Structure formats: structure tokens, C-alpha cells
């Protein structure tokens, strides 16, 4: 059932090129430079009336939402915000009919996300589900939305659902963007980039053995910091979540600029810093922060764009991801960090598929 892999998590990491193909298939319109997401179920006029996108989720799904926030703002010029679902439901959320609320949930059963959907429905928002499990409660109660088609995710730690969530959010943003300022040419280019995601992930997974060898150098750590900026900030959060939940190393994800506002006090000789330094806007600033960490003795593992020697020079160890659109680069980067977390946890002999205290689906608040 694990298809020859030692753990479901590793199997699911390797399934990602196929999961992504399934999530993307038939949903890109290369001629119009747009996407076809019939599940969004609205006429062009309705979509034009959307003034704000509110993305809801918990855990890994929340992190996918954070990438979506950038995508909606940058591609569609729509104000977007992410709210942790429990926070949303208890805070008297200001919601109107011109809001598109996207509930992101792999299982479609997370109690807080479901309650947030009910709250948003009650307030008259336009609510959509982004679920993996077909017929799940959130998928049913939202009535419209887009399925991930990632296939069943067994491992408690979410992997393929995350990358498919991001891919679908990019396609949603592309669709909304094309109704607004995003030109056909730009749309066509991005559609091609999205279409290439499965190959980018394949190439990242090819580095599995290298990442496994590298993980040896970090597996005895007690703490780790993941840093990134812009599109890669959510990836830093997700990388830290993956590492902590399966390896039990205390890992924190920080915006690279936040380091000097406190966390830098914790750096000692050899403290691991995992720096997301792909070639995207803000890279140089992140490299500056890496330099500050090095000066305090930290050991730096950099995720950098293939062939970026300049960035690699700042690092002690490097994982390369293929060059691609900056928003798209969140996906191969996240895959690299999934493999890193997996191998660290394997070396530490952890219960990878069933970490202590965790359940696959959190159906109580
Ligand atoms: C982390 C993880 C959890 C889930 C969260 C939401 O690897 O799996 O953080 O992402 O419990 O679950 P869903 O997406 O099913 O609502």
C-alpha cells in the first residue's frame, strides 16, 4: 500500500508530480491566458463584483492561503487577506456580499474551518471551498468550489495537498486577474508556468538523495529557524511546521526581516537557519539577513535557484530548485523542505506517518 516507500509521507511527496497534474489538468486555457474553474460557478459579472478575497484555513491549509493572498493581490489586484479559521469565527468578522470567502481544507472536515464557513454563509458572503476530499462537509456546505484532485492523503503531515492547494489558488487568481488588469499575454505566460509545475517538482524530487545526505548534518539540532520574504515567507512557515510536527525539533518560521526584532538573540554556534533565497523579489534582502546569522555562528541551509552561485556563496549547504515564476517557485521550494523534514525525522527514528498528539483531521475545536 505504501508502493515500496518506507512511509506514506515519502510516497505522497513522490506522488506530487501526478497529483499536481491531476489538479491542473483541463483547467488552463492557454489561448485566453486564463483558467477554467467551472466549480467557481459564477458569471464573469459576478466575479467582477468581488472586492475582497478572504482565505480561511488551519495549519498547512492556512499557509497555502498565505501564498494565495499574494497571488490575488499581485495577479488580480484584489485586496486579499488570510484568517486563521478559528480566529475568523470568533472575532465578529466584517464580511459583505462583495467578499469572496475561500475555505481551504484538505479533509473538508476541520471543525474550525467548517464553523467559519457557516459564519461566512450566514453573513451573505460568496463562499467557496477548496477541498481535497470529495463530498466532505465543507465541500457540501460551500456548495461551490474547486476540488484539488490530489488523491487520498494518508500521512498526517500534509504534503501533496499543500502543493495542489497553492496550484489551484494560482489558477483562481489567474482567472480573477484576467477579468481585471492582467493582460492576455501575461496570462498566457503564467498559464505555461503553471502547466510546468509537475516537471519542476519532479526535478526537485530528483534531489532526494542529496537532501537525505544533507539532513544528517541537521538531525541532531534542538532548534531551527526558517526564514523567507514575500512569496517565500509562507513557505518558511510551512517548512518549520513540517519539521516540528514529524521530527519534534523546535522549529520556527519567521519573516527574514523579523529576525533582528528578537529571534536573533537565540542564535548560537551551529544553530540551523534554513533560508529561502530563491531568485524572487527580496532575495538580496534575505541574503543580507543570512549574513547577519552567519556572523553569529549559525549554520545556513539555503534553498536557492538552480545555478545561482551568488546566493549559494552565502550558504553552508544548498538545495537547488528550478528557475520559474516567483509565485510558482513556492511549490518546488515547499517540496524541498518536505523532503528535508522527512529525512531529518527518519534519521531521528520518529513515527513519521503518525506523529504523537496529532490526528489527520481535527474535527473538534
Ligand atoms: C500539517 C497538517 C495540519 C492540517 C490542518 C488543516 O501537516 O496536516 O496542519 O493542515 O489540520 O487540515 P485540513 O486541511 O484538512 O482542514
UniProtKB/TrEMBL annotation:
The keyword Mitochondrion is assigned to this record: no
Keywords from the named record: Aminotransferase, Cytoplasm, Glutamine amidotransferase, Repeat, Transferase
Chemical reaction(s) catalysed: D-fructose 6-phosphate + L-glutamine = D-glucosamine 6-phosphate + L-glutamate
Domain of life the protein comes from: Bacteria
Residue span(s) of domain SIS: 43-182, 214-355
Keyword Repeat: yes
Active site per database record: 360 (for fru-6p isomerization activity)
EC identifiers of the protein: 2.6.1.16
GO terms, molecular function: transaminase activity
Compartment annotation: Cytoplasm
Quaternary data: Homodimer.
UniProt function note: Catalyzes the first step in hexosamine metabolism, converting fructose-6P into glucosamine-6P using glutamine as a nitrogen source.
Protein name: Glutamine--fructose-6-phosphate aminotransferase [isomerizing]
Residues of the full protein shown: 249 to 613 of 613
Amino acid at each position: 500500500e505504501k508502493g515500496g516507500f518506507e512511509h506514506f509521507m515519502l510516497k505522497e511527496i513522490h506522488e506530487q508530480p501526478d497529483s499536481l497534474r491531476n489538479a491542473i489538468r483541463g483547467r488552463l486555457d492557454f489561448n485566453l491566458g486564463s483558467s477554467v474553474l467551472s466549480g467557481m460557478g459564477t458569471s464573469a459579472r459576478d466575479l467582477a463584483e468581488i472586492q475582497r478575497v478572504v482565505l480561511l484555513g488551519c495549519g498547512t491549509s492556512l499557509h497555502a492561503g498565505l501564498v494565495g493572498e499574494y497571488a490575488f493581490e499581485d495577479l488580480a489586484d484584489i485586496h486579499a487577506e488570510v484568517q486563521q479559521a478559528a480566529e475568523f469565527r470568533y472575532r465578529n468578522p466584517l464580511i459583505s456580499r462583495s467578499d469572496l470567502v475561500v475555505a481551504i481544507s484538505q479533509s473538508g472536515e476541520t471543525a474550525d474551518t467548517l464553523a467559519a464557513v457557516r459564519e461566512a454563509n450566514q453573513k451573505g458572503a460568496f463562499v467557496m471551498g477548496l477541498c481535497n476530499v470529495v463530498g466532505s462537509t465543507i465541500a457540501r456546505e460551500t456548495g461551490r468550489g474547486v476540488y484539488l484532485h490530489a488523491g487520498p492523503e494518508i500521512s498526517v503531515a500534509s504534503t501533496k495537498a499543500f502543493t495542489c492547494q497553492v496550484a489551484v489558488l494560482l489558477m483562481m487568481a489567474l482567472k480573477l486577474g484576467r477579468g481585471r488588469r492582467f493582460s492576455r499575454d501575461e496570462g498566457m505566460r503564467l498559464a505555461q508556468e503553471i502547466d510546468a509545475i509537475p516537471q519542476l517538482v519532479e526535478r526537485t524530487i530528483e534531489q532526494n538523495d542529496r537532501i537525505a545526505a544533507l539532513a544528517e548534518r541537521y538531525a541532531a539540532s534542538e532548534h531551527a529557524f526558517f526564514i523567507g520574504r514575500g512569496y517565500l515567507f509562507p513557505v518558511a512557515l510551512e517548512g518549520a511546521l513540517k519539521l516540528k510536527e514529524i521530527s519534534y525539533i523546535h522549529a520556527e518560521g519567521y519573516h527574514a526581516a523579523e529576525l533582528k526584532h528578537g529571534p536573533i538573540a537565540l542564535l548560537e554556534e551551529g544553530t540551523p537557519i534554513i533560508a529561502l533565497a530563491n531568485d524572487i523579489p527580496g532575495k538580496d534582502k534575505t541574503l543580507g539577513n543570512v549574513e547577519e546569522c552567519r556572523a553569529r555562528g549559525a549554520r545556513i541551509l539555503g534553498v536557492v535557484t538552480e545555478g545561482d552561485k551568488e546566493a549559494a556563496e552565502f550558504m553552508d549547504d544548498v538545495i537547488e530548485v528550478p528557475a520559474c515564476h516567483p509565485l510558482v517557485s513556492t511549490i518546488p521550494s515547499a517540496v524541498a523542505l518536505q523532503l528535508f523534514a522527512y529525512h531529518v525525522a527518519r534519521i531521528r527514528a520518529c513515527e513519521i506517518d503518525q506523529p504523537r498528539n496529532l490526528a489527520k483531521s481535527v474535527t473538534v475545536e
